[in-house]
C-alpha cells in the first residue's frame, strides 16, 4: 500500500467524481460542532469501481450525500463529471442505492422501480418497459407484479438495485446496500453487481466498513481513518475476478486488516 498521490486542483473530465480538500462539520446540541470529514481528496475514474472503506461514523455516507448533491461541503469542492455540485449538474446521470431498500409496500416491484422515472417526462408505456427491462437485468423479470412483502431480502435488494439503474446513470452511488443480507445472499449480490458493471460500464462508488467486501468488488480502495474521516490509504486492486476466497484476495484482506488494527481499535471488522 502506498500513501495517497498528490491531486491536481482542476476539474478532469476523465474522472466520474472528484473530491478536493473536502471538510464537513455538523452542529451539536451543546452549541459545538462535530467534525465528520477533514481535508478529503481523491478521484473516481470513469468506469471504475471504487470502494470507500472505513469505520462507522467516519463520514463515508456524508461524502456520498455530497456527491449526490444532498449536502454541501463546508470547505473544498465536489465535482461530478467535471462539474461542481454547486453549479450545473445533470443529476439524472447519478443513481443512488441506500442501505435500506426503501420500497413502498403498496407498490409492486415494477412500480417501485418506476418511481425513479416519475419526475421525468417519459410516457407511461416507456416507463413500464424500462422498469421491466431493469427487473430482467437483475433476474426478477417474472416478479414484476409482486409486492415487497412477497419478496425475500435478496429479491428486495435486487428491486432497489433495478430502481437505481432505471435512469441509466453514468455513476452509481451505493451506501452499504448489502449490509443487511445474509452471507450467501450477499455473495450473490456481489456477483450480480459485477456482472451489471461489466455490461453497463458505469462508475460505482461503494461505501462499506467490510474489508472483504471492498476487496471482492473494487478496482480501487480508499480507506478512511476514524472520525474525522481522512484518506488514510489509497490502493489499486489489480486482481482478476472472481476474487472470493483466492489466496491473493485473502492476503490483501489480511494486509488491510493489519493496517486497520494499527490505526484504531474502534473499527469493527
Automatic annotation (TrEMBL):
Instruction: Enumerate the spans annotated as ABC transporter domain.
Output: 17-253
What InterPro entries does the record point to?
AAA+_ATPase (IPR003593), ABC_transporter-like_ATP-bd (IPR003439), ABC_transporter-like_CS (IPR017871), ABC_transporter_ATP-bind (IPR050166), P-loop_NTPase (IPR027417)
Single GO molecular function: ATP binding
Q: Which CDD domains match?
A: ABC_NrtD_SsuB_transporters
Its domain of life reads Bacteria
Which of UniProt's keywords are assigned here? ATP-binding, Nucleotide-binding, Transport
Q: Where is the signal peptide?
A: none
For the keyword Nucleotide-binding, the answer is: yes
What's one Pfam family here? ABC_tran
What family is this?
A: Belongs to the ABC transporter superfamily.
Q: Can you say what this protein is called?
A: ABC transporter ATP-binding protein
